[in-house]
Amino acid sequence: MKETSSAPKRFSMIPSYVWELVSGIWITIFVMLLVCFVFPKSIVAFDKPDFALGLLLGGIAASLGAYHLWYTLNIALCLGEGGAVKKLAIHNTVRYLCFAAIIAFAGLCGRPNVIAVFLGIFALKPGAYLQPLVHRLVVRLADRS
Predict the structure, then answer these.
(1) Residue closest to 133 by CA, chosen among 27, 36, 55
(2) What share of the chain is helix, strand, coil (3-state, %, to 5)?
(3) Are the CB atoms for 131 and 18 separated by under 8 Å?
């Protein structure tokens, strides 16, 4: 039987560690949102809906950045040393320019908090540290079923 949609196949090609990294990013975003809404307005000196919107925008950007990072490394591993260095430099520059454009967009719009967008993009870092923890959790859950 012929498959009608290529979307499930395309997403199944992404390795589990990328999904675990993205899960770590969203765990970090959730913790930041929880902290944002738990503290009273007198302590947190920013508009909470704008901050939440900025975190969500940054989280989406970080998730796409994680996918792009995997994609770039996957391509570079198939190239020779010289070609890999050039390809990594180009793709890293593109990724950082996209992050800068998203932050600039937030700054020009004024609606999402720019600091929150930056924190959301920076969630890529704690997400990378949480990836082994998420992996162990996934393995334990898979062993139970």
Answers:
(1) 27
(2) 80, 0, 20
(3) no
Q: Where does 77-110 have alpha helices with state H?
A: 81-109
d(CA 121, CA 67): 13
Distances (CA, A) of 64 to 21, 96, 99, 109, 121: 11, 12, 10, 21, 10
pLDDT in tens, 37-47: 887 665 556 78
pLDDT at 118: 94
Q: φ, ψ for residue 66 (rounded to 5)? A: -65, -45
* Nearest in space to 55 (alpha carbons), one of 32, 24, 39: 32
**Alpha carbons 120 and 56: distance in angstroms, whole number:** 7
User: 21 with 138: CB under 8 angstroms?
Assistant: no
**In the structure, what pLDDT confidence band is assigned to residue 4 with cuts at 50, 70 and 90?**
very low
